[in-house]
Amino acid sequence: KNEFGCSVVGHLLKSRVPQISERVFKKLSPHVPHVPELAMLKHGHRMVELMLECGTRKEQEDIANRLLYAADPHSLEQVALNDFGRFIVGSLLELDVSWISAKVSERLDLDLARAGVRRRVEPEGGSSEVCWQ
3-state DSSP call for residue 43? Predict the structure, then answer.
């Protein structure tokens, strides 16, 4: 929840040194149950994004499950409508874990574009340019 703390942890996670990332995730694991709440906070959402970006597949699945099955006021729908949480929904949709993006899309019975969630769309025709919608 602290800007400075999030910045330090973020740099450690992004270091790509396996021993450091593993230790940081081990320290963060008690906070995974609070991911839905953190996803809606100014500095907390960045932490959740980094955990999704840098985590192992199991860690990504744990975080996704917490978000998918959270109750109000931190449900996935509320996260998607939140100014900070919408970035987390976008990150979930971009994960290279097909069941997560499918489940998120299925659960969100709302117009994601209207909610401000941006989705990565691969262009047609083999173009290397990535589009965001």
Answer: coil
